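Minimal example, chain plus glutathione.
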Amino acid sequence: MAEYELYCFAQSGNAYRVALMLNLIGADWRPLFVDFFAKGVQRTAEYRENINEMGEVPVLVHGSKKLTQSGVILTYLAEHSQKFLPRGEDERLEALRWIIFDNQKVNGYLGPYRFLRYLVKPPGPPAVLEFLKGRIDNTLGILDKRLAARPYILGSAPTIADLSLVAYLYYPAEEFGFDIAAEHKNIAAWLNRIKALPNWAHPYDLMPGHPLPQ
Ligand SMILES: N[C@@H](CCC(=O)N[C@@H](CS)C(=O)NCC(=O)O)C(=O)O
């Protein structure tokens, strides 16, 4: 049995944060497939009772611990591995600030936008998509500006803040209908830097469930 088990599915950027971190730290891990699309497993009473009361992936199992919320899991893995760990109080708080901004606004808007535009049939209402796209453009602009002055979110080294923020940004441009990297040159350079880290892998190669059945 692997040391770590991760409840996940390929299309989930929220789960990708954790899968990527596990790979980058060289952890012994295996994915446990959650059939989100065909069966809505995460919405069943059984899942909520036994796996995650919040009805979400990712869920990380490590020994007797079962952790949810990617920001919590990344913090746990960083502390255990001493890798991608923000150092000192200022860095810790700064990483937390960006992880919350990410959860609420960067991937918090990109996730639902991609879901309503690409993953559900028929797609969501145009007015909702237009609202989300406006919010996405604004938050990506903030992220791009942050990265103009430094190679990684906190400075010269990658931390869990970077691994959180990249969560949805490697998915194909056609899923969003616009090319994030082409439109934001500092984000593009940062994505390439993270992609060059040893053991980086694409979400569709790390987690089960891609491609979706037609
Ligand atoms: N803030 C959470 C977000 C987790 C989340 O929203 N996961 C999605 C999949 S990408 C989910 O499981 N949604 C459940 C549902 O829509 O029923 C985290 O970072 O872990």
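The mean pLDDT is 98. Residues 12, 14, 42-43, 55-58, 69-70, 103, 111 surround glutathione (CB under 6 Å).
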